[in-house]
Amino acid sequence: MNILNSNKSEVLDKESLRQLEFIEKAKGYVEELKKELGRTPTACVVTFGCQMNARDSEKLVATLKLIGYEETESENADFVIYNTCTVRDNADQRVLGRLGACSSHKKKNPHMKIAICGCMMQEQSAVEKIQKSYRFVDLIFGTHNIYKFAELLCTSFESDRMIIDIWKETDKIVEDLPVLRKYPFKSGVNIMFGCNNFCTYCIVPYVRGRERSRSPKDIIRECEKLAKDGVKEVMLLGQNVNSYGLDFKEDDPNRISFPQLLDEVTKVEGIERVRFMTPHPKDLSDELIEVIAKNPKIARHIHLPLQSGSTEILRRMNRRYTKEAYLELVAKIRKRLPDVALTTDIIVGFPGETPADVDETIDVVKKASFDNAFTFIYSKRTGTPAAGFEDQVPEAEVKENFDRLLKVVQETARKTTEKYQGITASVLVEGVNEHDSSLLTGRLSNNTLVHFPGDEGLIGSFVDVKLTECHGFYFMGEKV
Ligand code: 5AD
Ligand code: SF4
User: Fold this and answer.
1) CA distance 228 to 121
2) Which residues does the record give as [4Fe-4S] cluster 2 binding sites (predicted)?
3) Is residue 10 predicted with pLDDT exceeding 50?
4) Per-chain mean pLDDT for the chain
5) How far apart are CA 358 and CA 373, in angstroms?
6) Residue 223 annotated as binding site
7) Global pTM value
8) CA–CA distance, 446 with 381 (Å, rounded to integer)
9) Which atom of ligand 2 is nearest to the CA of 205?
10) CA distance 421 to 406
């Protein structure tokens, strides 16, 4: 296999060059604004949702900085952009709340520009709501055309109208756009976009479109560039990384499997740890387990969304595995990869879920001994099949089931995490502890959080730390 052999599409090269021209043009507009204001204008990017969105926001920040804005954390800025999530309704509500508050800033600062992008904007009803009730918004775009941000900014500078540009679908991947990482030493790397799985509760396939894989050559090139720039840990991102490459034709040299790609990324000089997110349990291969087992650079962590432990609910969710199949997979992973931490996502309150179904979920949590589990209350998403299912579960019953599950999740996580007590392991130091500045915070290869006394100079490096005190899902430690 020679992954450096494939050709990049010329069309896409042209597109990134085109956007660089818009960046140059936008610089002129920001320069004018700077003169008018008598200071450097500020920009704030607010991100909701998953790592994909976080990565997209790093691209937005880069463009804003390149054209002359100074980044700020405050939404009282000259440019505010909300990169939205719509996986659950509460994310939608939070954006609208923040947007409402932002309008008062705009009243005081008429130069202010407000933009919204991301998954929520791929839903027509959400865009209509903004058009109707949030007239002060300047720019709306979606997930498929985020690469056009510089161009859209120029259009917005040239017009007083609300600019709306939403695409239903795309088969394009635009490479080589500017990006500014939040952390100098670690980075997300998109390996694919979209999802073909259509779990019946999930809006993602509708707002992120069909699966499109980046070529291995482009991914490796990006990792090499990141490594040269000081990145030591990368996280390969996709909605279901197991289907990486399956959208390439069978005779395409780009068609390598996800485990092969993972292995290739670990060969990049300077990259010391590789994570990935998220594999779907229905197609996690033996090949992947073998590659992880043989390669110590691959993080000892698998996030394996369970969603439900009831085979009947899983069927209605279109997850395409049973309770037994999930537990068999966990057993296989635990046997071949005894040092891997397993985490999961669980939804409570899916239509038709009974307390007996939740008992099944609790049973899986106990048997799988998850290191951590993210528990969500089912949120009805308009347009998904489950939104039309009868027997939505009453709120009080959902709450009771949720609390019951959460208790077991916390007990299990503590018991599983406690097992690391006393070991010494390598921590990638991420920053100064938010609550106690004498402490540093970092993560083990298995993703466990560790706090330990140390000097700021260690941020971004790997340090051996002895885990001395377990506090549920995190550890206190001492540098050795
Ligand atoms: N309601 C609640 N949780 C959801 N998730 C996805 N869609 C929904 C929904 N409609 C959860 C799943 C997924 C995680 C990212 O979000 O558990 O794994
Ligand atoms: Fe949503 Fe299922 Fe795709 Fe994950 S695999 S993004 S839960 S449809």
Assistant:
1) 35
2) 195, 199, 202
3) no
4) 94
5) 15
6) no
7) 0.93
8) 33
9) 8
10) 23
What number of residues does the chain have?
A: 480
The ligand minimizing its distance to the Cα of 281 is 2
Tell me if 154 is assigned to a ligand binding site.
no
Fold of the domain built from segment(s) 3-165: Rossmann fold (3.40.50)
Domains of the chain, residue spans: 3-165, 183-299, 423-479
Tell me how far the alpha carbon of residue 56 lies from the centroid of ligand 1, in angstroms.
20
Cα of 348 vs centre of ligand 1, distance in Å, is 10
The residues lining ligand 1, judged by C-beta closer than 6 Å to any ligand atom, are 87-88, 201-202, 305, 307, 345, 347, 376, 378-379, 381
* Type of residue found at 192: M
Q: Look at residues 21, 20, 206 and name the one whose alpha carbon lies nearest to residue 121.
A: 206
CB-based burial, 66-105: b 16+ in 10 Å, e otherwise: bbbbeebeebbbbbbbbbbbbbbeebbeebbeebeebeeb
- Sequence-distant (6+) residues with CB within 8 A of 270 are 227, 228, 231, 232
Angle, alpha carbons 22-238-433 (nearest 5°) = 85
- Closest atom of ligand 1 to CA, residue 380: 10
- CATH class for domain 183-299? alpha beta
Residue in this structure with the two tokens 């969500």, named with its chain if needed: 376
CATH top-level class for 423-479?
Answer: mainly beta
